[in-house]
Amino acid sequence: MGELLAQSTATDWRRIDPDNALYLQLDAGRVVIELVPEFAPRHVANIRALARERFYDGLPIERVQDNFVVQWGDPAQKKPVGNAARTLPPEFTRPATAGLPFTPLPDVDGYAASVGFTLGFPAARGASGTTTWLAHCYGTLGVGRDNAADSGGGTELYVVIGHAPRQLDRNVTVAGRVVSGMELLSALPRGTGPLGFHEPPHQGTIIRSARIAADLPPVERVPIELLRTDTPLFAQLIALRRNRTDDWYKVPAGHIDLCNVPLPTRIAQQEPN
């Protein structure tokens, strides 16, 4: 894969829109999350508003469940949200309109009629082809909720740190995915309470700050680029991973799972002055 990426050109990569980049600062370092307003416009706008209200600052990572999720928020639901909303109607799916790109995989999926990539995110579509949603893969950012579908809004967020829990697809609003710093989340101490909750909640790792990249000076932003998923190079990468030809492999799989397709990132080269 490294040799293939070495052949890439600038047009094979895309830069994250600073307005869609959420920086989560932990003592161990920075986690960069790409938000996806095309699928969850109200929730992404609300997450931006919460970050600008400094809502996430000082909150604990209250839940770390092994092979499942890292979750943070306000367990007591007492922290003011300012101009943001506490709850919103769900955004589990969206119409598969003509203007929404979709690069399908030919591989069979057990959770959807078809799967592929849209806007750089792993996605799925229903049998009619009129509805699409983002898949719960490793690194997915979801909006926590209670039993009621409209009981979430962004005050509780989680990131998948285990094997893809695709049963959550179409049951939770997906608002983005981690593109840098996953190792900081996946290595957090597991909670000792039921479902991985810390007991008491404040014993979890503290979020020092959460900022939208667009609100920071350019020098403080991370120039991350992501490999585009609508290019011939990406198609080659998938084919390479579907049938591994490394000396170690003796039996090519002939299949690839949506959540096992690598989504490469890199730090952009700084332009000379």
Radius of gyration: 19 Å
CATH architecture: Beta Barrel
Strand order of the largest sheet: 4-5-12-11-13-3-2-14
Q: What series of H and E elements makes up the topology?
A: HEEEHEEEEEEEEEEHEEHE
Mean pLDDT: 95
Instruction: Calculate the terminal CA-CA distance, rounded to whole Å.
Output: 32 Å
Show unreliable segments.
none
* Envelope shape: globular
Give the tally of β-strands. Answer: 16
The CATH topology corresponds to Cyclophilin
Helix proportion: 10-25%
| CATH 4th-level superfamily | Cyclophilin-like
Number of helices: 4
Task: Write a compact overview of the structure shown.
The protein has 273 residues and is an alpha+beta fold. 12% of the residues lie in helices and 26% in strands. It has helices at residues 2-6, 41-52, 182-186, 232-242, and strands at 13-15, 21-26, 29-35, 61-64, 69-73, 94-95, 103-104, 114-118, 121-125, 131-134, 140-143, 156-160, 174-180, 209-212, 224-227, 265-267.
Write structural notes for this entry.
The chain is of the alpha+beta class. It has a single domain (21-224), classed as Cyclophilin. 12% of the residues lie in helices and 26% in strands. The protein contains 4 helices and 16 strands. The strands form 3 sheets. An 8-stranded antiparallel beta sheet has the order 4-5-12-11-13-3-2-14. The protein has a 5-stranded antiparallel beta sheet with strand order 6-10-9-8-7, with no helix packed on it.
What's the helix and strand layout?
Elements: H1 2-6, E1 13-15, E2 21-26, E3 29-35, H2 41-52, E4 61-64, E5 69-73, E6 94-95, E7 103-104, E8 114-118, E9 121-125, E10 131-134, E11 140-143, E12 156-160, E13 174-180, H3 182-186, E14 209-212, E15 224-227, H4 232-242, E16 265-267
Antiparallel strand pairs: 1-15, 2-3, 2-14, 3-13, 4-5, 5-12, 6-10, 7-8, 8-9, 9-10, 11-12, 11-13, 15-16
